[in-house]
């Protein structure tokens, strides 16, 4: 009986030891699993944090301090590397902000139209996100193609239009969200906010009108020789320099030559100190029309350039800092078919040359009437600084150089 009790005790102890050992192993396994899960979760969080980047506003030029944000992407949109996410409209131009990597827009940190400065956080990007969706897209398309719609299915009828009459033509400007819409049975008005560039243009032109005593003088240029020269050498010029030869280079060079001859046209009045500032260099602004407004990129030190240098400078990509510092402006309305016009001064400059279209007209040549390609040119100048004699002499100098470029070689 005692032996039987000892046997039962021994068996019970062994069973208890086995149970305790199993429980210990299970506890160790659970703790290990929880530890791995915690570590894995921490790694996932770390990777997720590393995959989200904040994109900031790029640095502006010295003359620009702020701009307005215009979003081209929304939260949840997939973007490729270097794809434009938004534009920042400044007083002078628009600065595009590209995506630094492929991914998905996680958050927009600035409302549309908000003012921002250099270094302001703009949006958060989740790098690499959205790539699996792009990879699954062909499979979804294949599945859709493999399952044709029922033959009895008919396309739903188009929804009834609830919009009033829409004009058939619109001006070529980028789409701008309408703020207010007034409609009746016949007419409609849409109010849109002026962009920053248009506001700055309006301000500067009004300042010029209020400050300068503007006067315009006119002349006409026989384009026969320059047209023949361009026709004879345009192919060779393109082959050698990989750039086309245009008429603008001739007028830019002629203006630089005339500005050296008439320094007062290249000068400016400093209204603060009541002094006349003369420049010994020629930086010519060439007005360019864009959908958002007129911009005037500057070609610097034109006095030391030839036709090739000018054409290459005009084709280069320009930054915001290239919009400042011109001493004289050329505006070419002829590209739009303008025959005649009076340009307005681009402050703080003192004069502007207006080019117009080239049209065949009968003129007197050596006592005979001939048909020649002619262009009207106009010089608007600040009469506070420039007298009529200097203005007329300046415009005649441009006329003589364009009509016969050999004048440049002879320094006449």
TrEMBL record:
Give the CC-aspect GO terms. mitochondrial matrix; nucleus; oxoglutarate dehydrogenase complex
GO terms assigned for molecular function: dihydrolipoyllysine-residue succinyltransferase activity
What broad class describes the main subcellular location of this protein?
mitochondrion
Q: Where is the composition biased (Pro residues)?
A: 147-160
Instruction: Locate the region Disordered.
Output: 128-167
List the InterPro entries hit by this protein, alphabetically.
2-oxoA_DH_lipoyl-BS, 2-oxoacid_dehydrogenase, 2-oxoacid_DH_actylTfrase, Biotin_lipoyl, CAT-like_dom_sf, Single_hybrid_motif, SucB
Q: Which organism is it from?
A: Mola mola (Ocean sunfish)
Q: In which pathway does it act?
A: Amino-acid degradation; L-lysine degradation via saccharopine pathway; glutaryl-CoA from L-lysine: step 6/6
* Cofactor(s) the record lists: (R)-lipoate
* Protein family according to the UniProt entry: Belongs to the 2-oxoacid dehydrogenase family.
Q: Where is the composition biased (Low complexity)?
A: 128-146
Q: Name one Pfam family in it.
A: 2-oxoacid_dh
| EC number assigned by the record | 2.3.1.61
Q: Which PANTHER family match?
A: DIHYDROLIPOYLLYSINE-RESIDUE SUCCINYLTRANSFERASE COMPONENT OF 2-OXOGLUTARATE DEHYDROGENASE COMPLEX, MITOCHONDRIAL, DIHYDROLIPOYLLYSINE-RESIDUE SUCCINYLTRANSFERASE COMPONENT OF 2-OXOGLUTARATE DEHYDROGENASE COMPLEX, MITOCHONDRIAL-RELATED
Give the top-level enzyme category: transferase
- Function of the protein: Dihydrolipoamide succinyltransferase (E2) component of the 2-oxoglutarate dehydrogenase complex. The 2-oxoglutarate dehydrogenase complex catalyzes the overall conversion of 2-oxoglutarate to succinyl-CoA and CO(2). The 2-oxoglutarate dehydrogenase complex is mainly active in the mitochondrion. A fraction of the 2-oxoglutarate dehydrogenase complex also localizes in the nucleus and is required for lysine succinylation of histones: associates with KAT2A on chromatin and provides succinyl-CoA to histone succinyltransferase KAT2A.
The segment(s) forming the Lipoyl-binding domain are 52-126
| NCBIfam families per UniProt | sucB
Subcellular location field:
Mitochondrion matrix; Nucleus
- What keywords is this UniProt entry annotated with? Acyltransferase, Lipoyl, Mitochondrion, Nucleus, Transferase, Transit peptide, Tricarboxylic acid cycle
User: Could you tell me what this protein is called?
Assistant: Dihydrolipoyllysine-residue succinyltransferase component of 2-oxoglutarate dehydrogenase complex, mitochondrial
Keyword Acyltransferase: yes or no?
Answer: yes
Which Gene Ontology biological process is one annotated for this entry?
L-lysine catabolic process to acetyl-CoA via saccharopine
């Amino acid at each position: 009986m005692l032996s039987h009790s000892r046997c039962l005790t021994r068996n019970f102890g062994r069973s208890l030891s086995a149970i305790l050992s199993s429980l210990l192993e299970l506890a160790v396994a659970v703790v290990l699993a929880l530890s791995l899960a915690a570590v894995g979760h921490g790694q996932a969080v770390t990777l997720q944090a590393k995959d989200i980047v904040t994109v900031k506003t790029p640095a502006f030029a010295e003359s620009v301090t702020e701009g307005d944000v215009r979003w081209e992407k929304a939260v949840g949109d997939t973007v490729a590397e270097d794809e434009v996410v938004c534009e920042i409209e400044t007083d002078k131009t628009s600065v595009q902000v590209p995506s630094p990597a492929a991914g998905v827009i996680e958050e927009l940190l600035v409302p549309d139209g908000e003012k921002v400065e250099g270094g302001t956080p703009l949006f958060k990007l989740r790098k690499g996100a959205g790539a699996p969706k792009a990879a699954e897209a062909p499979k979804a398309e294949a599945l859709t193609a493999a399952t044709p719609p029922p033959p009895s299915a008919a396309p739903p009828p188009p929804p009834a239009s609830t919009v009033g009459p829409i004009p058939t033509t619109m001006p070529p400007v980028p789409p701008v969200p309408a703020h207010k819409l007034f409609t009746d049975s016949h007419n409609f008005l849409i109010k849109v906010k002026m962009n920053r560039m248009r506001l700055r243009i309006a301000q500067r032109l009004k300042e010029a009108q209020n400050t300068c005593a503007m006067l315009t003088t006119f002349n006409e240029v026989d384009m026969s020789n320059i047209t023949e020269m361009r026709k004879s050498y345009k192919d060779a010029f393109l082959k050698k320099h990989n750039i086309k030869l245009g008429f603008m280079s001739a007028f830019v060079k002629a203006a630089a030559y005339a500005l050296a001859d008439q320094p007062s046209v290249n000068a400016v009045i400093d209204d603060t100190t009541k002094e006349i500032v003369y420049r010994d260099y020629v930086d010519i602004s060439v007005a360019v029309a864009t959908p958002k407004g007129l911009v005037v990129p500057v070609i610097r030190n034109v006095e030391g350039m030839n036709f090739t240098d000018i054409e290459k400078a005009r084709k280069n990509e320009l930054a915001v800092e290239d919009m400042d510092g011109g001493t004289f402006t050329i505006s070419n309305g002829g590209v739009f078919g303008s025959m005649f016009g009076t340009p307005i001064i681009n402050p703080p400059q003192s004069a502007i040359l207006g080019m117009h279209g080239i049209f065949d007209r009968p003129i007197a040549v050596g006592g005979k009437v001939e048909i020649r390609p002619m262009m009207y040119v106009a010089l608007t100048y600040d009469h506070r600084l420039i007298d009529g004699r200097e203005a007329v002499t300046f415009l005649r100098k441009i006329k003589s150089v364009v009509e016969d470029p050999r004048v440049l070689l002879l320094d006449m």
